[in-house]
Amino acid sequence: MTKVAVGCRDLPGLERRIAGRVDGGEVRVVTRMKPKRMAELVGGSLYWIVQHRLIACQTILRFEDRPDGRLDIVCAEQLSHVPPAPKRAHQGWRYLEGADAPQPGANDDTGLSLLPPPLYGRLAALALV
Asked: Which InterPro entries match (predicted)?
């Protein structure tokens, strides 16, 4: 599953946001739409899109209904970096097939995930990354 980290400009910004939302070793991400494939998503990953690229993910622990009619995607607190992969922004969340997902915990010894988004975008446009 993918979700845009609205307002985050880079990986450290996403890390700060996640750290600020940790409660009891879990992070809750609110959504309006209930996934039809919830059962198969539990144990999978929520991939975060920052500046048009997937850069990190969290394990989905469960889904919980909220009193206001929305839904919490309850994730593990640990944010795993993934090698950056281009991904268009979207509203809400989208399914991500396993073959298209960067591997969580994959060693990104290239340092690409730490590049400033504008520089990464330029390098990608030149097909250098």
From this structure: UCP032025
Question: Cα 50 to chain center, whole Å?
Answer: 8
DSSP category for residue 1: -
Amino acid residing at 80: S
The tally of domains found in the chain comes to: 1
Residue bearing tokens 């809400």: 92
Measured distance CA(97)–CA(81) in Å, rounded: 18
For residue 92, give the amino acid letter: G
CB of 32 closer than 8 Å to CB of 71? yes
Range of the domain at 72: 2-125
Specify the pairing of strand 26-31 against strand 45-49. unpaired
pLDDT tens, residue by residue, 61-92: 999 999 999 999 999 999 998 888 888 888 88
Tokens of 90: 């979207």
What global pTM score does this model have?
Answer: 0.81
Whole-number CA gyration radius for the chain: 15
Distance separating alpha carbons of residues 93 and 56, to the nearest angstrom: 15
